[in-house]
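Teaching assistant's notes for section 4

Start the section by putting this record on the projector. Ask students to predict, before seeing the second block, whether Sigma-54 interaction domain-containing protein will look compact or extended. Collect guesses on the board.
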Amino acid sequence: MLDTLKKSEAFSEIITNNPEMLAIFQYIESIAYTTQPILITGETGVGKEMIARCIHKVRISRGNLVVVNVAGLDDNMFSDTLFGHARGAFTGADQPRRGMVELAAGGTLFLDEIGDLAPASQVKLLRLIQDGEYLPLGEDEPRYTDSYIITATNQDIWKLQRIGKFRKDLNFRLRTHHINIPPLCERSEDISLLVDHFLEEAAYNLGKKKPTPPKELFTLLGTYSFPGNIRELRAMVFEAVSRHKSKVLSLDSFRAHIAQEQENRAAPGDPGSDENSPFSQLRELPTIKQATLMLVNEAIKRANGNQSIAAKILGISQPALSKRLKNQRLRAETGMLYNASNR
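Reveal the predicted structure now:
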């Protein structure tokens, strides 16, 4: 896939065969020399910082990539971190401090978790983007920067804007160029590639021989939603390899992780209050028997016929699922015999 890119080496660290990811790489190359900011959005763990690094490499900047996570920074900390301060700017400021903006001169400033930025800090960031102007604490004369700005968030900035937590003008400035990274659950073709890569990485880090993954592993992972995305998959593989003892990798730690995550996501409150219910858009609800039948059949389909994995998806034991499937077959056979006898 990378052979269609002009600077494929800039994307070599990202493991993917996903067409949407390739389209993102091509888009990055098309805006490589823009002076406008780029906003990267996507769920936690999809690799927003890696995409920022790709952009920096494609631009061939003479400066460094400087990464700042702005989550949890109040306005004073934001100003001091980004813009620095003069000696004596506040109590304890015995020496001047260079801010991250200055360290990113000629390069790229990447601001992560931008959705958490305080309102006062948003004004300062807007000025930095529009005019390249910033004011270190304790100084009267503004300074100017030629650093390129990339921001990222896992939040919905449009929603933050609607509820008054994010400035409209800053929102529009940040998304002059916008990249949205698809979650891992929409990149099923990447799972086997990533697992192989993480197995090799984990084996090297743990001083073990790279284990062989069973075919059932990819069926199991293909049914999982990965709320933590690639970061979560990496952690799952490392945990499995750390417990690995035989030639073939065990599925036990993967199953345990998925079961724990499903338990954690189980709604403790009134299920009727869930706005994302799959039944909310239905005019007529199926009966319990119909809904159960559809759910079981869908689980079997997603598990490629593997009853053990299907049972995990449904949150029941494998014997319980086998009994349910047997009863379904008996009812179907009984119905066919009855219809035949009445012809």
